[in-house]
Amino acid sequence: MHMRFPSVGGDLSKESKESKTKNEVSITMSGEGEDMQELRHIPVALQRCIDLLSPSIERAISLRGSAVVIDATLGLGGHTRALLEKFPELHVIGFDRDKAALSLAKENVAPYQERLTAIHAVYDEISSTLHDLKISHIDGALFDLGVSSMQLDEGDRGFAYSHDAPLDMRMDQSQGKTAQNILDTYERGDLIRILRAYGDEKFAPRIADNIIAARAQGTLKSTKALAELIKESIPAPARRTGGNPAKRTFQALRIEVNQELEVLERAIPAAMEALIVHGRIVVMSYQSLEDKIVKSFFTKACTSTTPRNLPVELPNSAAKFSYVITGSESATESEISENPRAQSMRLRAIEKVAA
Ligand SMILES: C[S@@+](CC[C@H](N)C(=O)[O-])C[C@H]1O[C@@H](n2cnc3c(N)ncnc32)[C@H](O)[C@@H]1O
Fold first, then answer.
1. Which atom of ligand 1 is found nearest the CA of 75?
2. Distance, CA 352 to ligand 1 centroid (Å)?
3. Across the beta sheet with 90-96, what order do the strands follow?
4. C-alpha closest to that of 349 among 305, 300, 295, 303
5. Beta partners for 250?
6. Residue that terminates a domain, selected from 258, 288, 315
7. How far apart are CA 273 and CA 266, in angstroms?
8. Is residue 338 assigned to a domain?
């Protein structure tokens, strides 16, 4: 395995600047000041993720003296920090499409900054990034999907129906269409399609009709206006069950804005392909559409292609992965009580067993 890790420290040398891949982010060091208090958020299933990835990392360190893990969703760097703390021989390649998250992660991981390569990119760029960094294999990959608590709490991002804000919902605010663009331009049929497919919204046609009517009046310009429109679109008896009726439409718009399912469908196989034999991939999903994609890739990878009715395994048909967790795991009750975000989490993990 050829590894070359450009520094991500605040003061990059000319040489390392030139060797940066296009999206690498420089880290500005900062002390453990007041801001760091806010970074001490609770990463979901932290110890479980560390435990699941540890055997692959330990194996690599004992064989080669070092290990490389991808954190596809760096977020505030909670999982990465714990991994770097535990393994002084570990290097993490951390992806995030949100520049604000990367800045916070950089602060959180500052004590270990020379062992983090932070990349501002969508995680479906795993293969090209590893190629640019001249890394042929990785020992582990971690995906902690969705938005972070920081993104939900930042009222102006538009992710939360509880904060009045512009209808943005982009994880990467430097590019791409916003939720407002979708609401202003999508045809009725496309609005219904995304509300049904990504939000499982029964009242999609009524919501779509009201969105189109509101366009003409120019009244749909904020999360509050959208939440109100959704409420009015849903018959009163249906509003009384299943939590806030805005939840499904907000989820659908966020998935469409960020193309979340398409990029996940490209990223999971790319990470699986990049793993070395005995490397592990660990994924935490927070909604069923993502979990379905992960489950489908993992099931296929852990299943022999020999037809079930044959008595012997055909050559080259053995599964290349095996389950580390059979099925999926949820967060523990005590974790959910401390961190409500963990409630919907589904954790899956597999290990590569053959090249
Ligand atoms: C749940 S948070 C991760 C939290 C992190 N594990 C921690 O402990 O701080 C998910 C992060 O992944 C990022 N993200 C989501 N989808 C992404 C994608 N397709 N490509 C890159 N980053 C993504 C989000 O911007 C967010 O910061």
1. 27
2. 24
3. 116-120, 90-96, 67-71, 138-144, 275-285, 346-352, 321-323
4. 295
5. none
6. 258
7. 11
8. yes
Assigned domain for 149 exists: no
Ligand 1 neighbour 123 (Cβ under 6 A) = yes
Integer-rounded Cα radius of gyration of the chain: 22
Atom of ligand 1 nearest to the CA of 79: 8
Range of the domain at 238: 155-258
Q: Establish if 3 belongs to a structural domain.
A: no
Shared-domain flag, residues 179 and 327: no
**Is 227 in the same domain as 284?**
no
CB of 144 closer than 6 angstroms to any ligand 1 atom: yes
The helix (H) or strand (E) run that includes residue 350 is strand 346-352
Q: Which of 236, 258, 280 is the last residue of a domain?
A: 258
- The verdict on 102 and 215 lying in the same domain is no
Same structural domain, 168 and 205: yes
Tokens of 236: 């009163």
CA gap 27, 22 in Å, rounded: 15
105 and 26 within one domain:
yes
Distance CA 293, CA 288 (A): 9
**128 plus 266 within the same structural domain:** yes
Centre a 10 Å sphere on the Cβ of residue 200 and count the other Cβ atoms it contains.
Answer: 14
Q: Which candidate, 69, 55, 125, places its Cα nearest to that of 97?
A: 125
Contact in structure between 207 and 201 (CB atoms under 8 Å): yes
* Same domain, residue pair 25 and 117: yes
User: Domain containing 241 — which CATH number?
Assistant: 1.10.150.170
* 225-261 tens-digit pLDDT: 999 999 999 998 888 877 899 999 999 999 999 999 9
> Going by DSSP bridges, is the β-strand pair 90-96/138-144 parallel, antiparallel, or unpaired?
unpaired
In tens, the pLDDT along 101-159 reads: 999 999 999 999 999 999 999 999 999 999 999 999 999 999 999 999 889 888 789 99
What single letter denotes the amino acid at residue 258? Answer: N
pTM of the model: 0.89
Q: How far apart are CA 346 and CA 305, in angstroms?
A: 26
Number of domains in the chain: 2
Q: Is 95 close to ligand 1, i.e. is its CB under 6 Å away?
A: yes
Q: What stretch of H or E contains 68?
A: strand 67-71
